[in-house]
Amino acid sequence: MKIQTLSSLNIIAALALAFVIGAVLMWVSGYDPASSYYSMLVTPFSDRVYLLSALAFSAPIVLTGLTFALGLRTGLFNIGAEGQVYMGALGAVIAAYFARSLAALPLALAIGLALAVLWSAVPAVLKMWRGVNEVVSTIMMNWIAYWTVIMAVSTAFANPLQPEESVKTPEVARLTPLIPGTDFTVAVPVAYIVALLMYIFLKYSVWGYRISVSGLNPIAARSYGIKPERAVLAAFALGALTAGLAGVLQVVARPPSYSLMRNLANVYGIGFDGITAAMLGRGHPLGVVLASIFLGVMQEGARHMQIEAGTPFEFVRVVQGLIILLLAVQILRRP
């Protein structure tokens, strides 16, 4: 299987077709597509609070989008960000359970990132040593993470006062909104800065060069003394760091709960949204940021679409699923 970079025309065509198919499905289901799309894509720009909320939605998508984009750069179709987000969030919950002070914040980062990297090591080792397809192994690891974290949140780390969620991050360790009355926390600039650092790393560092060359042509990479296996390990590990960070921030920097919901509602799907963002952003870190903002607008707009047009929120997921499907068909091809 060969992974190719999409042109801007491919992406625009996929977006247009996804929205057209979505409109048809809305119309067949008895909803007004024009009103629904207006509420989804225009309303979020009508108020500062709406727009800042859309940016808050975009932050974790940027981080998981970088995970997938880094995999693409290395010639991998790594869809393991979802499970790594869960593990990062679990790390933040564990930190909140054991530390009821400011120390909970650095502890959350340390445990969350470590768990995410360890979780990514399984598919990385299977890929290198046994040639196991990363799509299969990461899907399995996602589901194992999902049920493992649900079990942990439902038992050992459950909130005795609110059993539908985990223990809360201590107030002193929370990253509260930078602008009162909004969801805009330091998580947003952190995500964008990480994307910028990733761009600099890939473009100007030695390891960034090795990763890119290994993905483009492993045979040529070996002739230059580059070991593609190490590039695969580096891509899995770095991708796990960004995905794990997304999970940590969803717990310590996402009002109002500052906890992990028992059904993982506040982290579920972030890894898959990152796949869409990476595809729309053509695997470029800065493109991922722009695509994530677009998806953040869609997610914020979905709430208005449900209220103003009466169209179920799930139609946004339908459109996003169509985008992934149409882009994946183009981005994956056999030699």
From TrEMBL:
Protein name in the entry: Ribose ABC transporter, permease protein
GO molecular function: transmembrane transporter activity
Pfam family, any one: BPD_transp_2
Transmembrane segments: 9-29, 49-71, 83-99, 105-126, 138-158, 178-202, 231-253
Membrane topology of the entry: Multi-pass membrane protein
Primary subcellular site in the record, as a coarse category: membrane
InterPro entries in the record: ABC_transp_permease
Source lineage: Archaea, Thermoproteota, Thermoprotei, Thermoproteales, Thermoproteaceae
Subcellular location(s) per record: Cell membrane
Superkingdom, natural source: Archaea
Keywords from the named record: Cell membrane, Membrane, Transmembrane, Transmembrane helix
GO cellular component: plasma membrane
